[in-house]
Amino acid sequence: MDNRHATSAAVSLGISAACAALSVFCGRTGFQFFFLLPLGLAAFLGGAQTAWACGITAVAANLIISVSLYIYRSGDPVSLRWGALYFSVMVLVFTWINAPLTRFTAALDVPYRIIAGALVCALVMGPIFLSLAGDPRMHEFVAERLAALSGSASGDFSAPAPEELLSAGVYAGLRGGILALSMIFLWVNRQIAAGIVRILRRAPARENLPAFHAPPVLIWILSLSLGAVLAGRLGEMELLDIAGWNILVISATLYFVQGGGIALYFLLKAPPFMRVIANVGIMILFFASGVNAAAFGLLVLFGLLVLLGIAENWVPFRTPKQ
Which of 5, 206, 272, 302 has the most crowded Cβ, counting Cβ within 10 A? Predict the structure, then answer.
């Protein structure tokens, strides 16, 4: 029995160390979009203790590297400070999503945990974003990228000024953009990690999405957020406008998840050939129709699913709620 415990502990330690090292590597190379993926693998393969051991190890290792670079003056102090903060917050939030610390948070559906985690990330990333947008070096970097884009573009291409582009980014980011990107980032990495573990274990997918229902009061919150956006615009109250947009993004996301649950509910009941047609259609949309068409199709799909989720407040598309 002791040998089994020792073997299990060794395996858990190995998973934690390997996934933490891979996370730090991805975060400091060209794979930044996937630096959370190893942490998801640690959580799904080793459980809650392995997940937190991996997350804390990754944060500590990244901080050691950042401090070392600062001491030996091998990096910009501002970038190192913001980068270490961003990495630490994202890792700890993602670990909490996959391995909640309390029974209350563990009882929350995953969409609620992702939204809560994205809110924390947005609160931390907002000041980082504002600081970088006001940094002259960021203006120079954007100007260089725009100049390179203008040189490679065919025909007449009028590049916007870096100040205008950064100002537009700050405007959209504070009004739900950072929050939406954080949710997408957390969700994509979690889904990929879960998919890899299912393949490794040859386990069928557990579909909880078809049973997801947003709370009925959400329709009133959505309505109030629209009113806040309108009042903020008309009254030139920027804080009210920002708050309204962020609440609107959260409400729309929950209805999007509900609409996706309705679509998946009917898709699971459809004949197999209908599922194949749906999957092929999605692949054609995203891989064969070009970037612009794919982005437009994604926006249309998002809007339709949000409307579908809202409509279920009055039309019982699925089985009655328990």
Answer: 302
